[in-house]
Every structure is written in C-alpha cells, then in structure tokens.
Amino acid sequence: MQNVSLQMIEAVKRRDDIELETIIMHSSWRFIGIKSFFFLFALLWRIPLGIRRFKPDVILFSSMVTAGVLPFIFRKLPVPCVAINHGQDVTLPVRIYQWYLPSVFKKLQGVISVSSATREASIQRGMNPGIGVSLPNGFNIREIMKLPAKDEALKILEDILGIKFGDTKILLTVGRQVKRKGHQWFIENVFDKINSDVIYLIVGDGPEFKNIANAKEKSPKQKRIVMTGKLSSELLSTCYAAADLFIMPNIPVKGDMEGFGIVLLEANSAGVPAIASDLEGIRDVIKQGVNGYRVPPGEAEIFAKKIEEVLQNGLNELSESSSSYVLNTFNWDKVIERYIDFLKSVITR
User: What is the mean pLDDT of residues 293-317?
Assistant: First the structure.
C-alpha cells in the first residue's frame, strides 16, 4: 500500500497541470505502530493548517486509516475530502474499527476503491454508492528496466540457491505470508498434482511462515519447494525475471481480503503470466487468457490442470500478452488520468 501511494505521488508530480502538497510518514515496520499514532494525531492540526496555508481544491487520503481522523476534526472542512481504500483498511476484523468506519465514510465526499470487491465491501459498511468509484492501482513501468535477462537471472538464482534449473519451470509466489494468500493450501492440495518438471519458489515472510515450512516438510516433493524468505528488491527482480508462471492461490478468509494484487502486475510486467484464485480484487487484474487465468478458489484439481495446460501450451504467447496488457492498462501515467478526472468531478459536484 505504501509503495503504491508513493508511486501515485510521483505520477502526479510528473504533471504540469497539478500542484501537490503532501503530508507523508516514513517509517520502518518495526516502529510503524507508535509512529502512526503520532502521525494521525498530528493530522488533527496539520490538515486545518494546510488548508489555510495552501488553499487546496481537494484533500486526498491514501487509505481509510488516515481518513479516520476526519470525525475528530469537529469543524466542517471547506474542502472536499476523498479517500483511497485498498481492501484490508475496509475489512479489518476489529470490532471497534468496524463500528467506527461508517462515521468516516460520512465525512468523505469521494471514495476511490482499488477494486470492485473493495467498493462493494465499502458499501456494505456504510459508504454512499453515489460517492464511490472503482479505479485500479497503477504500476511503475520504470521498474521494468531493472530486470536482468532470463538466462542471467537463472544463473544468479542457481548460484544463490545451489540449484541447477536446466529445463525445469519455475512457479513463483511473492507476498506477505498470511492465511488468505493460500501458500499452505497450495502445497498440501495442488503442488503434488502437478506432473510437469517444476520448482515452486516462495518469496516473502509473515505470520504463516512456519505453517508453510511445515507443509513443505510433509510434502513428497519437498525438495522441489524453495522458501527464500524476504529478499532485496534486486533479488526479487531476479526472481521475476527467472520465473515462468506466477501462482496466487488465495483462499477465502473472513475479515480479510485481497484488495487488488499488485504483485500480479509486477509479475506480468516481467512477462510472467499468472494462475490465481478467482477472488476479490484479483478479478480486476487478471483478464482471462490475456495475462493469466483465474480458477475457482479451493479447487485443487482445476488449479493443477490449468497450470499444466499453460506450461505445456501457449506459455510464450501468454508471456508476451501479459507484459503488453499491464503496460497498456495499468501504468501510472494512464491510471492517474482517471484518478484526476474523478477528483475534478468531486470538486465541481
């Protein structure tokens, strides 16, 4: 969410017709809790001060969390307020947060949801449908230039992991290891059903790391499963460049949702098509047969069969269409135009 917001800011700065003033919090994950508290508290006076100083036409909050200060600003602001919501900042399963959320929506004049599923979740929690739209996250196409060639990427990974890939295909999963991502489910229910010569490369860490590692140890194909933990941006780019197919096996989890799936764009931009669960924000990213395929969540046989089909037929064609689709649909310079059009409509409403 943080990287996406920063990329959006850079996209706005590249435009000559927009003046932008920002209030940004920079923090490592280690101190994000305490710093967020003081940052949000400071917004109570920084927002009114900023309105007097800069006289903005609109205020854009990067999430429902930052917009959450609005009910505490008792005086009505003379500027329309818009928030972008991403999924978990709407569905967070904390009772007091869910109780409070409708009061935040009442203070907003516009809401940008990054997927249709997120917009629907917002409506269920009190958002007036008339003030909300669904607009996708953008993607920074400038990052694509930093990818190594596939042969070079494979050599780097072979040296680091001590594996000779040869003709082996690489299935890649990237992301925070939480239950909804379905890593453990995929290992236990799908991976053993894949007959092709593949290695499953899992990048990232999180609270489910141990459960995923345990599932790996119990798998008959444990030697074909590699868990790297969290990687540097450079090594992550290497993984994308080396991969053949991106796997996003999400499962339904109450109170949690996939708001958009930015890692799908990262993979597609590297020419890596995706096989993913047909859930929530993933539906807004994957166009069937263009940049990958969506399969019914929890259907192990169908998931494995679709992976086999893509690996055996049409992988090269799908790789090419994946990259071009992302560049033409989700690059920030195009997406930001839609954001600005919506903000203008709120200003003139």
Answer: 93
